[in-house]
């Protein structure tokens, strides 16, 4: 991944944190949006999946954070987590597009 892509992802994550602080209420995701999110998550690299786990575990009790495996049911995750995941996956996809379109 190019430096500009990494910086873009860092900036998006920073902005997501600020957006979450300023607007803690999110609309519910539709079934179609959840299915698209699930599909997009399944296509992520292992490194990006680690970040997905961090985002999901953020609101879970400490006992659930320390396990080796995590079970994710998008139907039971809160709206804030779902939208954080959505924006993260979107940022990863955009960064991939930017890095693929770049000529060295």
UniProtKB/TrEMBL annotation:
Gene3D superfamilies cross-referenced by the UniProt entry: 1.20.1270.220
Keywords per UniProt: Transcription, Transcription regulation
Keyword Acetylation applies: no
Residue intervals of the NET domain: 19-100
Pfam families recorded: BET
Membrane-spanning residues: none
PANTHER family xref list: OSJNBA0053K19.4 PROTEIN
Name of this chain's protein: NET domain-containing protein
Organism of this sequence: Sphenostylis stenocarpa
